[in-house]
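Subject: complex prediction, re-run

Hi both,

The earlier run crashed halfway through, so I resubmitted it with identical inputs.
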Amino acid sequence: MPKIKMPKGSPSIDMTPMVDLAFLLVTFFMLTASFRTAEPVTVETPSSISDKIIPENVIMVTLDRDGRVFFNLSDPEARKEMLGNMLTKYKVSLNDEQVEEFSIMSTFGCTMQELPAYLNTEAARRPDFQTKGIPTDSTRNELLDWISFAAGAAANTGKTAYEEAKLKGGEPKMEDFKPKFILRVDSKTLYKDAATVIDVFRELNLNNLNFVTSAEAIPVN
Amino acid sequence: MAEIAESGGGGHGKGKKRAKKGSTRVDMTPMVDLAFLLLTFFVLTSTFSKPKVMPLNYPAKVKDPKSVKAPKVNNAATFILADDKVYYYRGEFYPKTKPGPEGPTVLEEANFGSGEKSVRKLLASWNEYVIRNKAILQQKLDKKQIADSTFTRLVDELTVDKEAVKVLIKTDDKALCKSFIDLVDELKIANVGVIAPTDLSPAEKDLLKATKN
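This time it finished cleanly. Structure:
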């Protein structure tokens, strides 16, 4: 019986297909990736069956598990307008750099007095910034002012965006361009704390709120 | 590919000096390494699912709460969230001092599980009318007997029907947002159209305290 001979081929394998695939995947991920913006708080949202995707033009209030309040307005143009109004009202002054920094950062949470120091802090260090969040007490309700100025500014930019979309053709719905009010709560936040923020919204007659949730499968009966 | 490039041949023969023949193979190992590194980076950092939102309408704030009487709601159910427990009662609230036709209100305990006393089972039985009629409408929609917009309108009308259950949500000081969202989620699963988060009345607080102990 003849012995089975091991083929004496070269030990190198052609890896071209694998590398092709690797590059294809790299390209795919590079193009599709949307990066998470640095947030000063980590919030574990509860889950729900809702399948409505978070809208574009939003005013978002975040509550962490200790009940600290954070604020975010998605539109950078509206942010500048809102900041201007807030600075005049609370008589705080910022330099141009700080204003620029404010318009590009995302969620923030500090009192108006702390704002200059907060903006001078590096983005990566902000989670450690010692603050109690945006005050919501009835005597000094800064959140109420943030929301009301933000709603005004976002409504204006929304209207401009709507006009532009109309000029481009198609039939845009005004509803899609109006700012939406989003509440992002941690699973372990006390509802009592969320209720104070909800009351601030209701004070301004903004009764249609949205809760951020992570998706969950719809149960089948 | 991964093999080491051979050193270019081209011995020094006698006679004419020839230009060194370079190998046609390029060592691509570093490039491939980098490609995989990037691949791993993007796979791990990219977020695919955008967060979802759950809309909820709150009742408008009343400037003078004493001037407005609570409207009579037919087919109402009230859920009370306390710590990690859920209590409920049907219909109107009757305190011990002023019992209704069936005596004073008693709080029953429910849970978010899947047993007999789960919120889902309870709501499914209470809101059976809406769920049944919605299924009929869905069938009609599937058979193309009614239009999309008509379907949405009819379902909206159905959920505020006299027979449909309306739910009030009340929370005590220690209730977590998770249980609140879970409850609203269950209500949406059961097609409850009228959801009103309100405050606990003092009488209800007392009853809750008594029930807990």
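The longest helix of chain A spans residues 142-167.

- K.
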